[in-house]
Design goal:
alpha/beta, Oxidized Rhodanese, domain 1, 5-stranded parallel β-sheet, 3 helices, globular, Rhodanese-like_dom_sf, Rhodanese-like_dom, GlpE_sulfurtransferase, Rhodanese-related sulfurtransferase
Length: 96
């Protein structure tokens, strides 16, 4: 599984796999919200080359492994939304 830091996410689409209540607290600007539990049925919505993010990087890492098994190019955002916010990347809301 490949990882990138929040600073290395440039032209990739960001897919946030956290639960709806987490998403509502705050997320990366422009991110696509597909909860981890919905990835299988919404696979067609995941852009090839996506940067996958969760709160800390654990769930998104599992999703990236699955996406790679399905033949998609995907990377895990190391440190998740916590690292994204700490790096000063654009956010909607705040991460608690």
């Amino acid at each position: 599984m490949r990882e990138v830091t929040p600073a290395e996410v440039s032209d990739r689409a960001v897919v946030d796999v956290r639960e709806p209540h987490e998403w509502q607290l705050g997320h990366a600007d422009g991110a696509i919200h597909i909860p981890m539990s919905e990835i299988v049925e919404r696979l067609h919505e995941v852009p090839d080359g996506a940067a996958v993010i969760c709160r800390s990087g654990a769930r998104s890492g599992q999703v990236v492994a699955y996406l790679e098994q399905q033949g998609l190019d995907a990377v895990n955002v190391a440190g998740g939304t916590l690292a994204w916010a700490a790096a000063g990347r654009p956010m909607t809301g705040t991460v608690v």
